[in-house]
Structure formats: C-alpha cells, structure tokens
Automatic annotation (TrEMBL):
<dbReference type="InterPro" id="IPR020846">
    <property type="entry name" value="MFS_dom"/>
</dbReference>
<feature type="transmembrane region" description="Helical">
    <location>
        <begin position="138"/>
        <end position="157"/>
    </location>
</feature>
<keyword id="KW-1003">Cell membrane</keyword>
<keyword id="KW-0472">Membrane</keyword>
<feature type="transmembrane region" description="Helical">
    <location>
        <begin position="306"/>
        <end position="327"/>
    </location>
</feature>
<keyword id="KW-1133">Transmembrane helix</keyword>
<comment type="similarity">
    <text>Belongs to the major facilitator superfamily. EmrB family.</text>
</comment>
<feature type="domain" description="Major facilitator superfamily (MFS) profile">
    <location>
        <begin position="15"/>
        <end position="481"/>
    </location>
</feature>
<protein>
    <submittedName>
        <fullName>DHA2 family efflux MFS transporter permease subunit</fullName>
    </submittedName>
</protein>
<dbReference type="InterPro" id="IPR011701">
    <property type="entry name" value="MFS"/>
</dbReference>
<feature type="transmembrane region" description="Helical">
    <location>
        <begin position="231"/>
        <end position="248"/>
    </location>
</feature>
<feature type="transmembrane region" description="Helical">
    <location>
        <begin position="169"/>
        <end position="188"/>
    </location>
</feature>
<feature type="transmembrane region" description="Helical">
    <location>
        <begin position="12"/>
        <end position="33"/>
    </location>
</feature>
<keyword id="KW-0813">Transport</keyword>
<feature type="transmembrane region" description="Helical">
    <location>
        <begin position="53"/>
        <end position="74"/>
    </location>
</feature>
<feature type="transmembrane region" description="Helical">
    <location>
        <begin position="81"/>
        <end position="105"/>
    </location>
</feature>
<dbReference type="GO" id="GO:0005886">
    <property type="term" value="C:plasma membrane"/>
</dbReference>
Length: 500
C-alpha cells in the first residue's frame, strides 16, 4: 500500500486534489471531440466511417488498458502512475494539435486514451483507501462531480469553440493545462511504495486485450452504418467472447491474477455491477436518441441541442456531492430506488414524443431524468466497493470501469439496432398506406414519422431495462468491508448486513 494512503490516517488531500484536476482534464477530453468530427472530416478529407475511429479508437484503447490498472496500482506508486498517465495524455494532446493527416491524429487520440484510462481507476482507488466507509459516500460524491461534470460540458464547450475557432483549438486549449498539471504532480506528489515482487502475465494481457477489445469493437461496429449485417461484428464478438472465457479461466487459477474475478463473490459488489451495467445501457438511450430526435425530427441546430441537454448534465453533476452525503446518512437502497423510479417514469414519458414536442418541455424532462440518474450510479457503485477487502480495491475499480465501457458499447449498439428496425417497419407501413400518389415531400414527412416511431419504441425498451434495475435495487443492503485475508482465493468473511 502506498505510504500515507491508509484509511486510518488523515486523507492525503493534496494528492487527491492533484489527481482530481488531472482526471477532470482527461474526462473532459472524452467528449470534447465529438461535436468537431464534421469539421475534422472536411479539413483532413476523410469519410464518416473513418472519422468515427477517433471515438471508437479512444474507447478501444481504454477498454484494453483499464483491466491492467489493477496490476499497475498494486505494482507502482500513485506518483509514478500519475506522472506516466499525465505524460502520455499531454504528449497525445500536443501531437493532436499539430497533426496534419488523419493517421497521426488517430495515433494522438490513442496515446491520450492510454493515459486517460489509468487516471480514473487510480483516483478511485486512492479515494477508497483514504476515507473510512462512513465518510466514503461524501468523498465519492465529490469524485462523481468531477466524473459527471467534465464530459457534461464537453459537447457544449466543443460546439462553441468549433463555431468560433478551428477544431485544433480543442487541443491547444487542453495542452497547456495538462502540462501545468503534470509539473504540479511532479513537484507535489511525494508518496512512496515499497518494492512489490509482481510480474505482468503477458498471456493474460493478450487474452484480456482480445477479449474486452473484441467485444468493444464488435458492439461499436454494430452501432455503425452497416449494423449487424457486417460480418466483422460477429467475428469480433466471437473472438472477444472466446478470449474472455479463456482469460477468466486463467485468472481463476492464478495465485496473483491480473484482474481478480473473486470480487463477484461479494454479493453487494455483484449486485452493484449488474445495476450499473443495466443503467449504463439505458442511460445511453437519452444521450443517443434525444439529439437525433431534436435535430432530425424537430430541426433544432446542434448548438441548441447541446444547450438543451446542458441543464440536465449540470444537475446530474451538481447532485453528486449531495447524494454522496445522503448515501453516508441513509445508505444506497433508498437513493437507488428513488432515483430509478424517477428515471423509469421519465424514460416512459420519453416514449410518447410527438412531431411537435416543445423545446423547453424536452429540456425539463431530460433534467428530471438526469436528476433521477444522479441518485443511482455513484451510491450503488460505492456501496458495492465498500464490501470488498482493501487488497481487492484495485481489482474492483478496474472491473467497474471495464464493465462500464463494455455496457456502454452494448447499450449503444442494441439501442441503435432497435431504433433502425422499428423505424424501417413504421416507414414501410406508412408509405404503403399512403399509396402511389405520395409526393416526395409527403415521403420525407412519412420518413420522419417512421423515425419518431422508432425512437419512441427504443425509449420504451430503455424503460423496461430501468424497471429491471429498479427491481434489483430493492435487494441492496448497506455493505461492510470484508476482512483481508492472505492469498488470492479468499473467502467472503462478511456479507452485507443491515437494511438501509
């Protein structure tokens, strides 16, 4: 364990502050480029299917890197990991700013991702070992503020910058900030780590990369233009599934696994993982479908769409410290049940959109939905992590972040597929009803009505997903930390006790 990062001692606020600022910049970068993709296409002369790799590649590298963070956190000090992660992120940002061809820009994004992927598990692990369970909700709530607020303002900030400047300004804005944080980390972080005799199992690394990378790539490709008809989807998913099974089997037999799946022996962690995965899948219905509906059906500009989503994003982020305090006081179940009830109800209302739904009604409904979501993710995750013994914290945080990546990819692909199928069905039925006398203008209108039907049906599917998560939330109990034991195959000595 890193010196000065024990639960019993005073939390290392300076280390946490430096880590949080670094994490904020890396999280902000995750969504900063999305709005600029169209400008990049025109400037670097690439197609839509190519430019999407700036997002897909970033996610793939993160998905491959995150499972290794459990090993890295145990092997190296916080200072060393932070400096390496921030250096990679800074180098990637500088290269992205001066990239004159697409392959260099893509390489820059992947370098950024390799640094960014280390930041979140590292910060979360420091938070877990620095605060006792009774104060951890408040601490994780502040962490949630960073986690939620950075990507929330990303699209809006990006839209304003791209509208007034070149897309390269996005990199020029981040680069000096990242460099200053790197220097501050070099000066201020002083923690030390006793020498740990651990070696990375490269067979596990390859299996993990093929497993999680294959699943992420397969589901991401399924969400593209060709959908599930693309054979690469099934090849990637097949390779990913087989590799993941082999990876899990190998980890279960190792004395020191790279990613310890024994975390799922702890019932509250397993339950939290199930709820957050379902929530992730359903949550993306709003991120995907509301912008499509606003721009394609209502004809709202991208900038106004971003502004419409901003209040909900800010509310979600701002509520995080508050829900953290409530979690410390009341536990996770009452928050999760209340939040999921709100999220389920508002998602159901979203399944009844009309061709002329008002802008401000959408803004208000989205804000209420995000208010509900804010009461679920961080309290549920923290309650699950609370049950793990200290030596499993790195594995728990790595597992959480990996599952978040995978469930986001699955949710995106699944929802896009459902929307496309239902949209085509509605459009064909409407055109058939209109008959041969339909004018081009009428056909266009019927196409929009078909899209609206597909969006509504997809929101209905998301409603049932959230309903399933709501049922699971009733089984949440306040978790207490299981005692540490020597060895990799420890038994659960303490189960979740007490009702919330």
């Amino acid at each position: 364990m890193n010196k000065g990062l024990n639960v019993s001692s005073r939390p290392p606020y300076l280390i946490i502050a430096v880590l949080m600022v670094g994490a904020f910049i890396s999280f902000l970068n995750n969504t900063l480029l999305n709005v600029a993709l169209t400008s990049i296409m025109g400037d670097l002369h690439v197609e839509t299917s190519t430019v999407q790799w700036l997002t897909t590649g970033f996610m793939l590298v993160s998905g491959v890197m995150i499972p290794t963070t459990a090993f890295l956190i145990q092997k190296y000090s916080v200072r060393r990991l932070f400096l390496v992660a921030m250096s990679l992120f800074t180098i990637g940002t500088i290269v992205g700013a001066i990239a004159h061809v697409f392959p260099i820009l893509l390489a820059a994004r992947m370098i950024q991702a390799s640094g960014s992927a280390i930041m979140m598990p590292l910060l979360m692990n420091v938070m877990l070992v620095s605060f006792p369970i009774e104060k951890r909700g408040t601490a994780m709530g502040v962490f949630g503020l960073i986690l939620m607020f950075a990507p929330a303002i990303g699209p809006t900030l990006s839209g304003w910058i791209v509208e007034h400047y070149n897309w390269r300004a996005l990199f020029y804005l981040v680069a000096p900030i990242a460099f200053v944080i790197l220097i501050l980390g070099f000066i201020l972080l002083k923690d030390k780590k006793e020498k740990v005799q651990m070696r990375l199992d490269f067979t596990s690394l390859i299996m993990s990369s093929l497993g999680f990378g294959g699943l992420l790539y397969g589901f991401s490709t399924a969400g593209g233009d060709d959908g599930w008809s693309n054979p690469i989807v099934y090849i990637s998913l097949g390779i990913g599934a087989i590799s993941l099974i082999l990876f899990i089997t190998r980890q279960s037999k190792m004395e020191r696994p790279m990613l310890n799946f024994a975390v799922f022996k702890y019932p509250m962690f397993a339950l939290a993982s199930a709820i957050t995965m379902v929530l992730n899948m359903a949550m993306f219905s709003g991120f995907l479908l509301i912008p499509i509906y606003a721009q394609a059906v209502l004809g709202i500009s991208p900038m106004k769409t971003g502004l419409m989503l901003l209040p909900g994003a800010i509310l979600n982020a701002g509520m995080s410290p508050i829900t953290g305090r409530l979690f410390d006081k009341f536990g996770g179940r009452i928050l999760a049940v209340t939040g999921l009830a709100i999220a389920t109800g508002t998602t159901f209302v979203f399944s009844h959109l009309e061709m002329d739904t008002s802008y401000h009604y959408l803004m208000l409904l989205h804000a209420i939905r995000m208010f509900g979501m804010s009461m679920v993710m961080m309290p549920v995750s923290t309650n699950g992590l609370n049950q793990l013994p200290v030596h499993l914290y790195p594995h728990g945080t790595a597992m959480n972040n990996t599952l978040n990546q995978v469930s986001a990819a699955i949710g995106t692909a699944t929802l896009i597929t459902i929307m496309s199928i239902r949209q085509n069905t509605y459009t064909e039925d409407l055109i058939a009803s209109a008959g041969a006398n339909a004018t081009p203008e009428m056909l266009k209108q019927l196409g929009l009505q078909g899209m609206l039907g597909g969006i509504n049906d997809t929101f209905l599917v998301a409603t049932f997903l959230l309903l399933a998560a709501l049922v699971l939330a009733f089984f949440i109990k306040r978790a207490r930390r299981a005692e540490d034991t020597n060895g990799a195959n420890e038994k659960v000595t303490q189960k979740a006790v007490g009702n919330n």
